[in-house]
Amino acid sequence: MSNKFTSAVLQAGIDSAAEEMFEVLRKTAMSPIIYEVLDVGTGVTDADGALVSSGAGIPSV
What is the DSSP letter of 34? Predict the structure, then answer.
């Protein structure tokens, strides 16, 4: 049971980090393509490069 709880807490933290990356990029971007159109995507990957969590924006597969 604690393993399930720990996994949920860790996933929520990773998801939050990906969303925060998107917001920081949106607010600080110098390109109108990014700050007006939001044509950008953010994400967190594992050591092998597999997507663990993605922020708002363009989703990746």
Answer: H
How many structural domains is the chain composed of?
1
18-35 burial, b at 16+ Cβ within 10 Å, e below that, comes to bbebbeebbeeeeeeeee
Q: Is the pTM of this model over 0.85?
A: no
- Residue 7: which domain range? 2-57
What is the identity of the amino acid at 40?
A: V
Tokens of 36: 């007006």
Mean pLDDT per segment of 10 residues, for the chain of length 61 residues? 82 90 88 81 89 73 53
Measure the CA angle with vertex 58, ends 50 and 61; round to 5°: 30
